[in-house]
Amino acid sequence: MPRLYLPQYPRYVCVEQSNIMLIEGGKIYSTVITTTESILIRKPLTQLHQTVGYVQFCRVHTAYVVSLDHIVFFTAELINLGSREVPIGRTYREAFYKRITFLGE
């Protein structure tokens, strides 16, 4: 799995993409939340989503991109990532459902 080097002044922190659970962000700053730490960086969420890629990660809300590999369960309004829960925005719900494989439906 590719590595990312995230700026955390005055150093750069190496993060395996597979360890990223979710990215919480806004227009200027984003927080990359891994299985072990949270790293605040000065990069908008949209740009960061493009950097990590669209295969493993899915935008589920205006403020959240989640790793599909870390989802424990979800409801129509909420995704549980084990230690974190994030809302699913109405405008992102259909795109999220297209990324999930449903069994027994």
Short description:
This protein has 105 residues and is an alpha+beta fold. The model has no long low-confidence stretch (mean pLDDT 92).
Structure write-up:
With 105 residues, the chain is an alpha+beta fold. The chain has two helices and ten strands, in the order E-E-E-E-E-H-E-E-E-E-E-H. The longest helix is centred in the C-terminal third of the chain and has 10 residues, at 90-99. The N and C termini lie far apart (32 Å). The model has no long low-confidence stretch (mean pLDDT 92).
Question: Helices, strands, pairings?
Answer:
Layout (H helix, E strand, L loop, with lengths): L2 E6 L2 E6 L3 E6 L4 E5 L3 E4 L3 H8 L4 E5 L2 E4 L5 E2 L3 E3 L4 E3 L2 H10 L6
